[in-house]
C-alpha cells in the first residue's frame, strides 16, 4: 500500500504536495503572497493547480460576499444596480481588488439622478436611513429637489463628456445612509450624478481609483499598472475644486498607496512600460473582470464590449501639466450586446431602438420613449426632473417650422445627402459599402441643410417666423455640433440600421449667424443600399426638390 502511495506521489510536484497537505489556511496564506499574474501563470501548469487557483479566486475575490456585508438581499441588490446602471466604487472596492483583509469602509454607490427613486426605495426596504448633514435636517428627497432647482438646465442635462467641464461630472453628495446610528461598517454613501455613472469613474484623479462593481461584475480598468506594477497614473484633466468626497477619496488613496507600496505617477519625462494605453473599452483584454457569480467554473468569461475610450500618455501633448495620462471621451456601446441597444427612458423596456423609433418627452425633451406605455411607467421617477427642467427650457419659436420642413422634405434631403457624403469620401463608388463602413462614414459625416430664417413682426411683440431652404453640403459632425451633442448623434447612428444623418442649421440673414442646429437620423431600407455611384448620379434630381418655405405661424 505504501508503495502505491509512493508511486502516486511521484506524479505530483512538491509544491502541490505542500498545498494539499497544508490545508485551506496554508493555501490562502501562500496565494496571498502571490500577485494576480503569478496566480494566473500557476493555474496554467495542470488541472490540479487550476482547481486550487479557482478555489482561491472564488474565496478571495467573491463579489457577492462583499455585497452581502452591506445588504441582506445581496443578489437583489446587484440585480437592481445592474438594471439602473448604478456603480459601486470607492475604498471598499479598491481594497477588494487588492485583497485587503479588513474592509471596514462605507460602500460608495454612484447613481444617475433620474434612476434615483428605485435605488432609495430599495435602501429603505433594507433598513437604511438617511442621515442629514444640514442644520435643517432635510429629508433626502428634499435635498435632491433642492439640488435640481439650483442647477442650471444645461448642467442638469450634462452628458459627462470629456470636453464638458469636469464640474458637471462631479456628483451631488455624498449622502450617508446607515442602519444603526453608530455603525460605519453597515454604511452607504450615495453619489448622485447627472451623467452616466461610469463617466464619473473615468474622471477620477488617478488610474488606481478606477475600480468598480457594476453590470454584473467587478471591473478594474488598469489592473496591470495598479496591482502588478503597483503604479497609479494621474489622469486629472482640469484644475477644479474637488468635491468633499473626491478630495477625501484621493487623500485616502495616497495614504493607502504609501502603505501598500503603490507609486502615484504624475507628469515626467520617464516612459513606463506596461501602461494600458491606446483605444480601450470597458471589458477589453486590459481589464480585470470578475463576474458576480461563476455559473460554470470551467467556462471562459466573456464580457460584452462596453463604452470605448482612448488613453494617451504625456507624449501626446494633451495631458495636463501634472498628469501622466489623459483619458479621452467615452464612445458609444458596442452593438453586440442586446442590453446596450435599449435606450428607451423606461429601464424595464425590452424593445430596442432597431425595432421601434423613439419619441422625446414633450415636457423637458431630455428623455425618449418608444411609446406611451413606457412613458407612463417611468413617469413616477422622471417627473421630479421633468417638472423642474421643462419651465426653464429655452424654446426656439421656429422649431415647429423646422420640423415641418423635415416632415415634408426629410426623405429628399436624405437622398441628396447620400450623394454628398459618399462624394466626399474615398469609398469604392462601384461597390455597395458594408454596414460597418456605412456606420463609420455617418458617424463622422452628415448632410447639413442650411435654412434661412425670416422674421416678421405682426403686431406688438408677436412675431412670425418662416424657414427657407438655402443650401445643402456634406459636413463633419464635430464642426457643426457642440461636443455635448456629438455623442448623442453618434449613438443614434450606432443604434439604427443603415442610418443617414441630417443636420438642419437655421441661420439668420444677412450675416448668416447660426441660431440653432437640429440633428435627425433617418434609417434607410436595406433594399435601398446601393453602390455610391447611384447616389451621386441621383443628386441632380433630388437636389432641386429640396426648395421650400415653412412658417411657424
TrEMBL record:
Keywords: Membrane, Metal-binding, Transmembrane, Transmembrane helix, Zinc, Zinc-finger. PROSITE patterns: ZF_MYND_2. The keyword Transmembrane applies. InterPro entries: Znf_MYND. The chain crosses the membrane at residues 200-222. Pfam families: zf-MYND. It comes from the Eukaryota. Residues 349-386 form the MYND-type domain. This is MYND-type domain-containing protein.
